[in-house]
Amino acid sequence: MRLIKTLFLPILITLCLSAAVTASADDGSFLLKPDAREKVCLTCHTDMADKMKQAYVHSALKQRGDCTVCHNPHTSSHGKLLAASVGKLCFTCHPDRIPANAKSTHEPVNKGQCIKCHDPHASNNPFHLLKAGNDVCYECHKNKKEAFAKVKFKHWPVDKGCTNCHEPHGSAVSDFLLKEPIPNLCLGCHKLDNPEIAKQHDFYPMQNAKCTLCHNPHGSNQAGILYDNVHPPMAARMCDQCHEGKNSPTPFKLKKAGYKLCEQCHAEKVKNILGKTRVHWPLLSGKGCITCHSPHASQQKYLLKAPMKVVCGQCHSDTIARQDRSKTKHKPVMEGKCTACHDPHSSNYVFLINQPVVANMPSNTIMDWPTLVVNLCGTCHNYQQHSTHPVGTKVVDLRNKNTRVMCLSCHRVHGTDYKYMLHFWPITTMCVQCHKEFKR
User: Fold this and answer.
1) What is residue 34's predicted lDDT score, i.e. its pLDDT?
2) Quick one: pLDDT band at residue 1, thresholds 50, 70, 90?
3) 33 lies in some domain
4) 300, 308, 302: which is closest to 336 by C-alpha?
5) Which domain, by its residues, includes 371?
6) Within a domain: residue 376?
7) What's the angle, vertex CA 366, arms to CA 360 and CA 369, rounded to 5?
């Protein structure tokens, strides 16, 4: 019996105290004085009184006047004494901002950075936005603002507001936060039964076409907001040069497959490409040239489908990833200029390496590998300015007598974690790979 009292007496006392505390809280003894809930915070935060006079006030303040809906009045693990992280706090009341199974979501929303766009207390802009209209979008998308300001032909919905086409939080139906998939979004304004639109498209059936393959949805310097670089047959509306006729059962079917289609106009180019010993495999695939190039129009030079680094990175993602995480980066790769070293179509050398132009050497001369590498690197770097180390065909690599010393013997061209893109660091560690007699 004594043992039972010893075990249960503390528990009994705790339960009684808890009941007393609960009763005390329920009878209002720990609540603020009447009308104090709205006023006590404003005693110190005097600026909030003016803030709440703005046109759009957060309902938690306007309807309830209760700061403790979002803030803990005593202590918190979050800045501004917030009761939870910003994103978690906002989603408590706004759980449906991102649609279920969204196809695309706005990055700030994903990261719970609601206050990048919204003022959590009040604003003179609808939806408590920090800035009006497109200005709130341009805070992050400065490049879009600059590009839109420069173009000759502006797409009017962009000028009126980004949310004409884009959902600001997430889209359940399309990429790029679009409100509708393309072409449905475009057909909301541009009716295909309009005679002028039909004529501009050479009367081809465009109801299922992807408009953004040819048109820049924000604006461009080309009439019809075509991308700035237009394929000549496209500009001349010679669609049937590549596609079957508009009255065909399959009007968009290509007349020939792969590079054979492009060869009709670019015969000399194709001949030179196929005349080399190594051909870039996409060119020989079923898609041919349009693996990398847009057949209609593009924002990029040479009608590339995207910036060069993006196009090359679709297949060579490991190389791009290595470059991105390397501490020392090779400038051409960093700038997306892969063709500074590689030929995108074909080459007589491994890795589709470019053959540099050398004075007094015929262009069809096949260089040995060490000479090629040294000459190619030498188009940007004069190695003799930082090293007198012998390189070239006659200099045997002491690590492997079947190879020769060249730039790649010490440097990795796509970047490393070491200075100067060296394979090892410090420099002495690099040197003793060959000069073992100096190893300590």
Assistant:
1) 65
2) very low
3) no
4) 308
5) 327-438
6) yes
7) 110
Beta bridge partners of 243: 254
pLDDT at 30: 56
User: What is the C-alpha to C-alpha distance for residues 39 and 350, in angstroms, rounded to an integer?
Assistant: 76
User: Distance (Å, rounded) from C-alpha 424 to C-alpha 433?
Assistant: 9
Comparing CA positions, the residue from 59, 66, 70, 72 lying closest to residue 38 is 66
Give the pLDDT confidence of 343-375 residue by residue, as tens digits. 999 999 999 999 998 888 888 889 999 999 999
Question: Any long-range contacts for 381-386 (C-beta under 8 Å, 24+ apart)?
Answer: 381/407, 383/407
* Residue type (1 letter), 391: V
Going by the DSSP 8-state scheme, the letter that residue 230 receives in this structure is E
pLDDT in tens, 28-54: 545 667 666 667 888 888 888 888 899
Residue type, 154: K
Return the structure tokens found at 438: 């100096």
Q: How many domains does the chain have?
A: 1
- Which of these, 170, 38, 177, 54, lies nearest to 120 by C-alpha position? 54
| Buried residues in 347-370 as b, exposed as e (16+ CB within 10 A) | bbbeebbbbbeeeeeeeeeebeeb
Q: Which helix (H) or strand (E) holds 280?
A: none
Provide DSSP, 132-163.
STTHHHHTT-HHHHHHHHH-SEE-HHHHH-GG
Extract the tokens encoding 60: 């938690």
pLDDT, greater one: 226 or 29: 226
| Residues 129 and 199: beta-carbon distance below 8 Å | no
Cβ-defined contacts of 124-130 (< 8 Å, 24+)? 124/54, 124/55, 124/56, 125/55, 125/56, 126/56, 127/56, 128/56, 128/58
Both tokens of 439, joined, read 């190893």
- pLDDT, tens only, 90-141: 999 898 889 989 999 999 999 999 999 999 999 999 999 999 999 999 999 9
Distance, in Å, from the CA atom of 369 to the CA atom of 335, rounded to the nearest integer, reads: 26
Closest by CA to 228, choosing from 152, 156, 290, 293, is 152
Alpha helices in 111-227 (DSSP H): 135-138, 142-150, 156-160, 184-187, 195-200
Partnered with residue 177 across adjacent β-strands are: none
CA atoms within 13 A on the CB side of 369: 12
Residue 394 domain-assigned?
Answer: yes
Q: What are phi and psi of 9, to 5 degrees?
A: -60, -45
Residue of 415, 414, 373 whose CA lies nearest to 391: 373
Residue 421 is assigned to a structural domain of this protein: yes
